[in-house]
Amino acid sequence: MDGSFHQWFEKRGPKGCLMGMVDDATGTPLGRMGKQETIWAAAGVLRIWIEKYGVPLALYTDWKAVYAKEPSEQQKLRGEVPRTQFGQMCERLGIRIITANSPEAKGRVERNHGTHQDRLVKKLRRKKIQAYEAANEFLEKEYLPEHNRRFSCAAAAAGDDHRAKPSRVEMDEVFRLENERVIGNDWVVRYENRYFQVKRGGRQYAPAKSKVVVCEWEDGRLEIRYRGQKVAWEELAGKPQPPTAEKKKTRPYGGTPPTTSHPWKQSYREMTARRPPVAAGARTGPVVKRRGHF
């Protein structure tokens, strides 16, 4: 599997990316065109392949962040293998991802890119196609069937190692994004600058500060799951504000405002001027006895 960026519509339309898969045994290709080489573009091509041929055992890809990523030093020390969202989808299907370290390592799909950049561009020009939707319809109904009839070959060994395709419901559970989040003290989950108020109570109760999984599908549908079970929620219009407690207006002097003659209203000089004079030799404070003083 790989994506090929090219000016497929020449000057008639935008630059695009042809996401392609090629069977290593027969050279049978499958492709769909879109704007970028994204997770959903790769997942869409893989899903079409599964619906047509079954679940493959492995995918040979490059080191692009869509398919796989290098572990950090901390992950290497812990023995962790980082997984992308597409990698998680493949793991649910039992598909192994094999990464190539050079374009030459995945030469079959690269040679297919070269063929398509020549033949497909000319055929799109003859059809005057200039949009992704029309190009995908042409790929599915005309171009790829003709290409397979002319250039695909028989496998060296008999038999088919594709596994049976899952049901539509199972496929929907496979092709989704999963992101872990923590419920706040106010039972609000933040996801992609959106705020979801988790409803308390019910059969499946998610306590505050617990971890939940936000599931997102390509059509924008969302679910919040706690321990594998869906929880009820509603989206908030904006960021929730913390509650403000009402401050009680208390007066430490009993509720009556102090007069101008009150010590709180006077300066230090005024207070010292009104004190009576201290007689000579008089003590101004209590006598404090300390150990060792006589």
How would you characterize the overall build of this protein?
By secondary structure, this protein is α+β, with helices and mostly antiparallel strands. It folds into two domains: 2-154 and 163-169, Ribonuclease H-like superfamily/Ribonuclease H (Nucleotidyltransferase, domain 5); 176-235, no CATH class. The protein is built from seven helices and twelve strands. It has helices at 39-53, 73-78, 85-93, 107-127, 132-151, 168-174, 268-273, and strands at 2-6, 16-22, 29-34, 58-61, 96-99, 177-182, 188-191, 194-198, 211-216, 222-226, 229-230, 233-235. The protein has a four-stranded antiparallel sheet. A three-stranded antiparallel sheet has the order 1-2-3, with helices on both faces. A three-stranded antiparallel sheet has the order 7-8-12, with no helix packed on it. A hairpin with a 2-residue loop joins strand 7 and strand 8. The longest helix is centred in the middle third of the chain and has 21 residues, at 107-127. It is elongated. The protein starts with a strand and ends in a 21-residue tail after the last helix.
Q: What's the SSE pattern?
A: EEEHEHHEHHHEEEEEEEH
β-sheet strand percentage: 15-25%
The number of domains is 2
CATH class of the largest domain: Alpha Beta
What's the rounded overall pLDDT mean? 86
Radius of gyration, in angstroms, nearest whole number: 36 Å
Principal-axes shape call: elongated
Name the quaternary structure. single chain
Which architecture of the largest domain would the CATH scheme give at its second level? Answer: 2-Layer Sandwich
Helix coverage percent: 25-40%
Give the number of DSSP strands: 12
Distance between the termini: 98 Å
How would a crystallographer describe the biggest sheet?
4 strands, antiparallel
CATH superfamily of the largest domain: Ribonuclease H-like superfamily/Ribonuclease H
**Segments where pLDDT lies below 50 for 5+ residues?**
none
Tell me the number of helical segments per DSSP (H or I, 4 or more residues long).
7
Strand order of the largest sheet: 6-9-10-11
* Class from helix and strand fractions: alpha+beta
What is the CATH topology assignment of the largest domain?
Nucleotidyltransferase, domain 5
